[in-house]
Amino acid sequence: YHMRPLEEDIPGCINRGYGSSTAEELLYHYPDVIRPLKPRAFVVSIGHNDRGFGYTPDEVVTNLAKLFEFARADFPGIKIYACDCRPTLKFVTDYHLEYMDTFHQLLKEYCQAHEDTVFVDHIHHPIWFENPEDVGDHRKVRRDIYVEDDVHFNQLGYDLYTEYMKE
Questions:
Q1: Rg (Cα) of the chain, in Å, rounded?
Q2: Do the Cβ atoms of 103 and 60 come closer than 8 Å?
Q3: What is the pLDDT of residues 95-132, one digit of tens each?
Q4: Whole-model pTM?
Q5: How far apart are the C-alpha atoms of 141 and 123, rounded to whole Å?
Q6: Residue 11 half-sphere exposure toward CB, CA atoms < 13 A
């Protein structure tokens, strides 16, 4: 998917995301991928792939907590932005919805317990839904912002995501 990188729209942003990653892999690669950047802020969006690889929501949040502790130790005063899983069209099953709701709640609780950590709530923002009354209903996510796989954004989706992240 060849979309305009977030770095072009948000000054100082360095995207170190890599496809099909999990929180455990991000934790493992932290010394090589994150630490050398010496970030002032750290935005993490993870969760969909963790479910696919069999991690429980609790395991994902536990791995993220370890990751954030490393960042706090390495970079005192760092601001952390922890994103819940943005809604997608592909994973609309009862199992997935229960998983995402549990992950959302656990991550939100973690963030509320840490002053330096902001919970970025995708699922309750109207930008991702057909109608304002549909906010939070994974089954009513906008179709016009995804490519054929119903997971990855098209250019309109990335443009909206950029505006959302700037906010």
A1: 16
A2: yes
A3: 678 888 899 999 999 999 999 999 999 889 999 998 98
A4: 0.89
A5: 9
A6: 0
